[in-house]
Amino acid sequence: MGIGAHENLDRQSVHFYSGPDERGGDEPGFYVSMLEQDVQLGLIPIGGRIRKTDQTCVRLLSGAGEAPPELQERVASAMATDRDPLSSAVAERVNQTGAVIVAHGRAVYELAYYKRDLTPVGFILLYLDPRFVEEKRGAFVQRVPRGTQLPRDSIQEAPTVLEQDEVRPLAADRVFTIGWPSEYRKGPRWLRRLSWLGGTRYPSFLVDNLTRPQGSRVPFDFDALREAHDRALGAVTAGLGWNARGSFDKMQTSYYFCLRDLRFRRFQVVLRDRIVRGLNEALTRAGRILGFDARLSVEGLPTVADIDRAERMLAEGKLSYKDLLNRFSLY
């Protein structure tokens, strides 16, 4: 469902790219970036289709049945673009949201509306960089940093350059956030430790030490460093069960590799369900304004009950890693 030229977007935030001075030390590190990628690959398959059956795993329900095609197109357009079918649009939004939650602790969106004259006729979910959105006592603001270039109404006009930080209030009913599931409250703490670990893979003196003459080098045991680092990596990721792409395989048996793998898949299932609930909250809000009833349903993908069953089979010696992949691989 395209938006006509006579329809205007009513938004309260502004879109901008943060510069290196603003990003500072908030950029995800080596391991966190790896984890982001692995998490989103296990939420909803790209394209929103089940590998074994090639059936869509995303449905849009309205009332007691399937939502009409026009409403499905409207929701798909709000999630991604007019060109994407519903299943692909929702998969893209869910996977991107999961990556942002891992990197920054929460994903923040503005619910903006397309209006014809003063009447809302459509909506869209606008991603907001969570590092620049603050909440205090239920009130939200977006901080736009000094030096940001903001476009004007016409592309012929030079953009406006902010000479100082600008704070833009955001109505609470326009903003919704999706954070870590309640079962994983310690997630942000784990990620801070993982980020620190990714930045300390090698001691700061190492390069200088290697350039010195052989006789003046400080003795250094690379194997001892690697072992200590891998043990720390295994400990930091134990809560999520992430195997860090086999980084410490030599330190665990195949049983514990599979056990951790199932733990990680459980996290992905719980995170996916948390994100879908958040998106349904947005659809409920938009529906009140635009007069529709719609909710997303994800079907045919692994559930917590499936993970429970697989863990019991593993404990009984009835599940190999090959079986695990066949049961839970999304691709």
Characteristics of this structure?
alpha+beta, 12 strands
Poorly predicted segments: none
Outline the biggest β-sheet.
4 strands, antiparallel
Strand content: 15-25%
Return the string of H and E elements.
EHHEEHHEEEEEEEEHHHHEHH
Q: Percent range for helical residues? A: 40-55%
The general outline is: flat
Structural class: alpha+beta
What is the distance, rounded to the nearest whole angstrom, between the alpha carbons of the first and last residues? 30 Å
Mean pLDDT: 91
- Enumerate how many helices there are, as a single number: 10
- The Cα radius of gyration reads 23 Å
Molecular structure report:
- The protein is 41% helix and 18% strand.
- It is an alpha+beta fold.
- Helix 8 runs antiparallel to helix 9.
- The mean pLDDT is 91.
Annotate the secondary structure layout.
Elements: E1 8-10, H1 20-23, H2 30-41, E2 58-62, E3 65-66, H3 69-79, H4 86-104, E4 106-116, E5 119-128, E6 133-136, E7 139-144, E8 149-150, E9 160-161, E10 166-170, E11 175-179, H5 187-198, H6 206-210, H7 222-236, H8 254-290, E12 295-298, H9 304-315, H10 321-328
Antiparallel strand pairs: 1-4, 2-3, 2-12, 4-5, 4-11, 6-7, 7-10, 8-9
Summarize the structure.
This protein is an alpha+beta fold and 331 residues long. It has ten helices and twelve strands. A hairpin with a 2-residue loop joins strand 2 and strand 3.
